[in-house]
Amino acid sequence: MGNAEKSSSSSAENPSVLAGRNWFERLLVSFIAARTPTCREVVRLLSQSMEVKLPVATRIKIRFHYLICIWCYRYGKQLQALRRIASSLPDHMDDCAQETLPDSTKERMKQILRETRDE
Amino acid sequence: MKLQNSLFNFFAPSTSLCYFTGMQNRENEVSKVVQGVSDGVNPERWVDDHGDCLFRYALLRVRHPEVAEDLVQETLCAAVRVYRDFQGRSSERSWLCGILKNKICDHFRKLGRETNFSDLEFLNDELSHKFIDQGWNHDLGPSEWKAEAEFIDRAEFWEIFRGCLSKLPARVGDVFMLREMEEMTTAQICQALKISQTNLWVMLHRARMALRECLESNWFENKPRLQTNG
Fold first, then answer.
1. Which residues of chain B have a CB within 8 Å of the CB of A41?
2. pLDDT per residue of chain A (119 residues) written in tens, 0 to 9
């Protein structure tokens, strides 16, 4: 009960598509909430969807859940952003690290490369 | 490998064949450089141009400088051997980086040790305040990330991202980076690290949750403040 009060009290700032702004929205929200997974579950499924294609029914449920929960929608978008960010990190190593190979190591490497090339 | 080379020589244009056979007898450093530039290959230049970058990446992944040095060494040697396959479709650096990624995957395959499952316990309680019952706490739920195109070129952003990665427990970080940076498939990672798919999914889920959280609080929510101050 306490939770229901909390979510209705903050519905003014709730930017979700359906946020229970009037009786009809409230009806839709509770209808969708009863038939889609909880946020905790959606968040887990969203990570899983980065690995395997989820069943159609699950994907539809998540879509409907987005209508009542903008946070899960953002979470899904951000997981994709995270993937893009992580995969381009190797191209930005010079931006985030200053370690260098010691000169002696570089010379040794060059020596070995000469030998490898001339094999 | 030898068969591959000979097949390649057979099909390769005669110019590159001349170059590589001619190369073998040359001792003169200068002519090597000239020859190398004209044909686009000079492995010693790779050390100067890309060595540090490759080393930084390897170091991020394996954490020990000696191991990272060995990986860079292996990468460059392999690159010399397969140079003729490099068609210039990508930049030299991303080509070398690709080889290094394979070497990193091999490194983890060789390690293949049992996962330290205590890592899985992390974050269990740390993020529970984010949820009220099973739903997001509206005040703490994910905020909107704006202007992705902008931050991708900012050095500060990458520093923060690297910092966030290093805060992950070692094994969770390994798994996440193998998946997202070396782009191994889930099946390959399970096989290499000898962990179950369920465990892998849990680890990836926790890693993503933690990284998302870390980026949001250190970059996306800090950034507007920094901008107004500056």
1. 134
2. 334 434 444 445 788 888 888 899 899 999 999 999 999 999 999 999 999 999 999 999 999 999 999 999 999 999 999 999 999 898 888 888 888 899 999 999 988 888 887 77
Distance of alpha carbon B136 from the chain centroid? 33
Which class is B117-229 in CATH?
A: mainly alpha
Whole-complex ipTM:
0.84
Q: At what angle do helices B92-111 and B170-180 cross, to 10 degrees?
A: 130
Report residue B229: phi and psi, to 5°: -65, -40
**Domains in chain B: boundaries:** 1-37, 41-111, 117-229
Tell me if A40 and B131 make a contact (CB, 8 A cut-off). Answer: yes
Cβ within 8 Å of A, B 174-203:
176-177, 180-181, 183, 186, 201
Which of B123, B150, B177, B180 to mutate against chain A (most A CBs within 10 Å)?
B180
Q: Which of B141, B142, B155 sits opposite A96 (nearest CB)?
A: B155
State the Cα–Cα distance between residues A62 and A97, nearest whole angstrom.
39
Q: Which fold has domain B41-111?
A: Rna Polymerase Sigma Factor; Chain: A (1.10.1740)
Nearest to B201 by CA among A11, A38, A52: A52
Distance CA B152, CA B157 (A): 7
